[in-house]
Amino acid sequence: MPGSLKEEFVKGLWKELPPFRLVLGLCPTLAVTKAADTGLGMGIAATFVLVFSNLIVSMLRNVIPSKVRIACYIVVIATFVVITELVMQAFTYPLYQQLGIFIPLIVVNCIILGRAEAFAGKNGPMLSAADGLGIGIGFTVSLTFLGAIRELFGNGTVFKQAIMGAGYEPFTFMVEAPGAFVCLGLLLGMMNIVEAVRTR
Amino acid sequence: MEFFELAISAIFISNILLIQYLGNCPFLGVSKKMDTAVGMSGAVIFVMTLAAIVTYLVHHHVLVPYKLAYLQTIVFILVIASLVQFIEMFLKKTIPPLYRSLGIFLPLITTNCAVMGVALINIKKEYDFIQMLVFSITSGIGFSIALILFAGIREKFETARIPVSYQGTAIGLVTAGLMALAFFGVKGLV
Prior knowledge:
Strand content of chain B: under 5%
Strand order of the largest sheet of chain A: 1-2
Helix content of chain A: 55-70%
Low-confidence stretches of chain B: none
Shape of chain A: globular
Distance between the termini of chain A: 26 Å
Structural class of chain B: mainly alpha
Number of helices of chain B: 9
Structural class of chain A: mainly alpha
Largest sheet of chain A: 2 strands, antiparallel
Order of helices and strands of chain B: HHHHHHHHH
Low-confidence stretches of chain A: none
Oligomer: heterodimer
Number of strands of chain B: 0
Order of helices and strands of chain A: HHHHHHHEEH
Shape of chain B: globular
Strand content of chain A: under 5%
Mean pLDDT of chain A: 88
Mean pLDDT of chain B: 87
């Protein structure tokens, strides 16, 4: 049952917050959160794709035959990913290089295809755009937060500003691959604790 | 020797799942039981190798000569999606037993970023054809080793006492982190 515009927007911020509440789109989450700024960049790129693919899929939902819908959704998503890729190449080249293959891989990000399938294919364009924006902002906040934590412990900085004192010995484990998994796992558990306390 | 190094590095040192962070959704999704993990591994090795060969040929013989390299993302995803569909139909007609064991995993593979990731890495690193072949097969093997090991560990969770909030994905991610640490141990090998 679709709610109001505001409800659809707000649910992405806690109730269906990716990647914590919906465990989807883990690859970019783990890979680009070495630092807060790459996490933020990835989040914004994914939000852009999510909002516009949701909008277009929703507008075309009565035209697309249901048997080939997944292929059609992928084409729509891929189009916006290419737009993002080219824009980033032109205007934010250093960020584009840092994110590397994870920009084209937004195409196979399960969050975006998941929203197209679960929401935009069934609801009107305005609601779908609100849903995309909410989920996208939730994703951006999560990535930035995770990036900030890993950068803080792994490097002693957040957004390249020194936070820990000069005597801080960087805990490099956090910026390497194992730290990504452990950090996300621990945060996920903490979210579950918060949720359990909230609903009690 | 060069191929041996490439293989070892793709399987262990830069393991596609644990070190390069590709294909994590199926990694957490299908690792609850050993037999599904084995089935998924077989399907991934098979599709990854075929998809890498096809995308490599398409890139070097269609996109580059016609100066269409900027369409790489769209073309690759379409090639992979249609290839998966084709493999599914082909297996169903010709080798039904194999289809029964791999069939349900095939549609999932379209959105497995490891397949697309390997195709993109092949182009990015400018491998020649043989290197591309070695890299794709061994990446698939690396994926399988990590997935099967993880499924084995995960089966033990059923008897372990895990705090309620950490059950399921949370403890799975922490375990994956520790496995990644173990894979880090072989870093000095090549």
